[in-house]
Amino acid sequence: MTSPSASSSPPVDRRDLRKAFVASLTGTSLEWYDFAVYSAAAALVFPVLFFPAADPVTGLLLAFSTYAVGYVSRPLGGVVFGRLGDVIGRKQVLVITLVLIGVATFLIGLLPTYGTIGVAAPILLVLLRFAQGVGVGGSGAARSCSPASSASRAGAGSGPRPPRSGRPRGTCCPTASWPCSPCC
Fold first, then answer.
1. What is the phi/psi pair of residue 39, to 5°?
2. Which of 33, 60, 126, 140 has its CA 20 to 30 A from that of 155?
3. C-alpha closest to that of 78 among 133, 25, 5
4. Of residues 20 and 72, which shows the higher confidence score?
């Protein structure tokens, strides 16, 4: 015996759901890899390369402060790219944020040291780290709803959908703080 709500919901294309899951997992893996590599570099080489004028403990604390900038900037990325995802779509925002993270990471790898350009080196490091954090926060907002919205669009032409989980239409996933119609 089937419930009325189960018979009125569109069928979910498992292939589309799998593609959305793999894309979300890939983005998450790349982001955490970037952050893991940065944390190792902040502990091992950044104090020497970017803060050589400071004593070793202060240099280490300054290097980890640049690491913290990435976490502090995440909410800004979530707000900006979360809203942009509502407007242009989560898939496009996920691509944009992953490119932002990748470019910032690449530029951090090419960044000249304190010995080459002086105080500008740590300043550029902080700015690129801020960009990385904004990208991670934005991709988190895009990732939170993309598998569900991809699965729900699989049967989009088959009529109106009932709201999921008792949430009214127009409210989003529990991780978001604004309405996002592609998600519900």
1. -65, -40
2. 140
3. 133
4. 72
